[in-house]
Amino acid sequence: MASPANSDRKIITGPAGYVLEDVPHLSDYIPSLPTYPNPLQDNPAYSVVKQYFVDEDDTIPHKIVVHPDTPRGTHFRRAGPRQRVYFEPDDVLACIVTCGGLCPGLNTVTREIVCGLAYMYGVKRILGIDGGYRGFYAKNTVPLDPKVVNDIHKRGGTVLGTSRGGHDTAKIVDSIQDRGINQVYIIGGDGTQKGAAVIFEEIRRRGLKVAVAGIPKTIDNDIPVIDRSFGFDTAVEEAQRAINAAHVEATSTENGIGLVKLMGRYSGFIAMHATLASRDVDCCLIPESPFYLEGEGGLFEFIEKRLKENGHMVIVIAEGAGQELLSESMQSMTLKDASGNKLLHDIGLWISHRIKDHFAKKMTINLKYIDPTYMIRAIPSNASDNVYCTLLAQSAVHGAMAGYTGFTVGLVNGRHSYIPFYRITEKQNEVVITDRMWARLLSSTNQPSFMNHKEVSPEKKDEGAGKMTWIPENGQVGDQEEAVNISV
To answer: What's the Cα-to-Cα distance from 250 to each of 237, 255, 379, rounded to whole Å?
Structure first.
């Protein structure tokens, strides 16, 4: 392999178009670091495992669908234990922090980091940071060991507490340095991971032997590169309860409409997957696919048609959908929370009123609005997510012990990988409405796409992603006569 292309981004190139987007290592900025045999080689639990240690040259391809003349493309370093480690267990003082909104699996990840450090590597000193990033300098720490975290995976939320914002990088790194912490595990979404990247850069600038590992968390599944984020599977499963309730309500009355609002600030993955899993949904509305209410081909027309056909209807809407429709009458579109996220209006409540007002003089409808948002994100993770959380946590521990730093861990094409922070913070993952999955949903619900294929003009093509200009058949978006740009 060739040498790294630059110091900021550790890019390694090889023959046939091979590119490795590597993650930083402590030895990159601290010379002559001693290494030690991995304690796992003497761990009886792993004595029967063949080839347990990961080869240093193992990498995972970012894209697996290729053509004969396609270059080998971008790869990421494979996660897992190495034969040599850069920390002696007795010297490790690790800390764990959870930031941002709640998500199923937070406690499972915390538990498995603690148990992984203790049982696999013999680490005895582990701290929990209370209350998110500001807990580094504003609150006391919580001592953690396997006994303390034994059953926390059975609870929702996070036992460590969480918060948004509070990111004073200098104070955080001062606290890390003063306490003698040398491994930092940061669990949070894209905003949290951006903060983790800044913390790592300050640690590197000071020349500290501190490994910074991120575990990406977002219930919306909007983190790029990785196959999925933990908690997403649980959220989709729990969303079925709300959809089932909406379906029961809708089918039990004349012209019944069940309206369910699900999470999805910028990405409609939960709404899309819950709709596909349910088979009871007649219309799914997500942020990536603009829709309009009135006129030919609009939502009101479709609702009337479906009620006349079936006598009932179930609508699923993601929280970020349709925000442009109500932005003119409400002024908080530019306000943001402590994490920098836009404060969204309650599109579910707003559109339920619009539907009622529209049909008030036309026909009798019975609409029931269900918002299970906080019920979904507050539950414990299901079996699938529990397994996934375990593997994420252990992969993070293996990486930190092996001296890797400034990375986040995630599943890429079914394999756990170490991904540089910049790759998961440079953009958000979105539903591609020109992809087969969205086509499957439209086929399943038999809903209109609210756009005509002749009116969708691709402006660019970049491996299936680009921008399209969308103009509805009546030329209107809500009450505004303008085109809407769709990121796909």
So the answer is: 20, 7, 26
Q: Which of 265, 420, 424, 277 is nearest to 345 (CA)?
A: 265
Q: Is 220 tagged catalytic? A: yes
Quick count: other Cβ atoms within 10 Å of Cβ 409? Answer: 27
User: Pairing between strand 415-420 and 73-78?
Assistant: antiparallel
Looking at residue 238, its pLDDT comes to: 96
Q: Count the alpha carbons within 13 Å of 38 in the hemisphere toward its beta carbon.
A: 23
Selecting among 220, 222, 233, 385, the annotated active-site residue is 220
Give 49-75 as a DSSP string: -TT-SPPTT-EEES-----TT---EEE
At 249, is the secondary structure helix, strand, or coil? helix
Structure confidence at residue 330 (pLDDT):
58
pTM of the full structure: 0.87
| Spatial separation of the C-alpha atoms in residues 135 and 46, rounded to whole Å | 36
Tens of pLDDT, residues 46-75? 777 777 899 989 999 998 888 888 888 899
H helices of 360-409, in order, are 373-377, 383-401
